[in-house]
Amino acid sequence: MDIQTIGIVGAGQMGNGIAHVMALAGYDVLLNDVSAEALQKAVDTITGNLDRQVGRGKVTEADRDATLKRIVTTQTLAELGQSDLVIEAATERETVKQAIFEDLIPHLKPTTILTSNTSSISITRLASRTDRPEKFMGFHFMNPVPVMQLVELIRGIATDKETFEACRGVVDKLGKTAASAEDFPAFIVNRILMPMINEAVYTLYEGVGSVESIDSSLKLGANHPMGPLELADFIGLDTCLAIMNVLHDGLADTKYRPCPLLTKYVEAGWLGRKSQRGFYDYRGDVPVPTR
Ligand code: NAD
């Protein structure tokens, strides 16, 4: 299956990163968002990130210019109709994603592969509501996309081999590494990572350690580049809680119960770096633990 044009729906932090790596690898990118502001911000972010790569000698100026030319933005979903592959990277809400697929499908070629970058929603369920469950799968990038090496490829129950191989071919062309995961709650990375983060929050909640001692224990004692609480702040505590809820509901095992302290931080609106406060307070020059 020959893939040349890639449609991306949603130009937020993941969508802009996906557009960046796809265009840099030579694909033509059609980037869609409902918000003109989000599209402009995405182009500015991609330009800034490419400039940084040029500064570090990783990308030539000619490649940067050609990459930017390969990205076309549009607020009209129908303009993604000629895509060979569509990656949906819009807001993590099932009704939003479902409405996008419903609006998009009448404009697509019968051969177009449809994928979602969802972190937690069932691929099989999303696929079942489309006209092409066999050509539907999960294409799960890690954040920040230009930096992180892994892409999880998730087969729904109906995904055919040709679709999986075509997506694997795209990951290869990006120079990234694919991990194949079955369609169960939170797939592989978040199935393992989130319970560890949740356990770190329990360790804090029960007073076993402070924010600083928990993070330095995992950094120095287990050689993790970031402590689990620092990492939770980076991901977003609302996202961490949402994924724990998906694990808890989807696997019906009390070992996945979200820590009440994590819930409390989210209720307070202390969501981590994006709101300037989480397990650390980022409003000053250096992050200060909040417990
Ligand atoms: P984000 O909030 O930064 O961006 C979402 C974008 O979707 C926004 O620009 C919004 O305007 C747009 N959007 C909303 N409804 C739309 C519609 N109907 N049509 C087109 N665009 C629409 O979110 P994000 O962090 O980029 O996450 C996007 C997806 O990627 C989610 O499914 C999320 O679970 C997944 N994901 C996120 C991360 C992460 O670390 N943030 C990592 C892996 C996967």
TrEMBL record:
Residues 5-183 form the 3-hydroxyacyl-CoA dehydrogenase NAD binding domain. Transmembrane segments: none annotated. Keywords: NAD, Oxidoreductase. It comes from Sulfitobacter pontiacus. The lineage of its organism: Bacteria, Pseudomonadati, Pseudomonadota, Alphaproteobacteria, Rhodobacterales. This is 3-hydroxyacyl-CoA dehydrogenase. Residues 187-282 form the 3-hydroxyacyl-CoA dehydrogenase C-terminal domain. Its EC number is 1.1.1.157. The record marks H140 as: Important for catalytic activity. PROSITE patterns: 3HCDH (PS00067). It is an enzyme of class 1 (oxidoreductase). NAD(+) binds at G10, A11, G12, Q13, M14, G15, D33, E92, K97, S119, N143, K274. Gene3D superfamilies: N-(1-d-carboxylethyl)-l-norvaline Dehydrogenase, domain 2, NAD(P)-binding Rossmann-like Domain. GO terms for biological process: fatty acid metabolic process. It comes from the Bacteria. InterPro entries: 3-OHacyl-CoA_DH (IPR022694), 3-OHacyl-CoA_DH_CS (IPR006180), 3-OHacyl-CoA_DH_NAD-bd (IPR006176), 3HC_DH_C (IPR006108), 6-PGluconate_DH-like_C_sf (IPR008927), 6PGD_dom2 (IPR013328), NAD(P)-bd_dom_sf (IPR036291). Belongs to the 3-hydroxyacyl-CoA dehydrogenase family. The keyword Cell inner membrane does not apply.
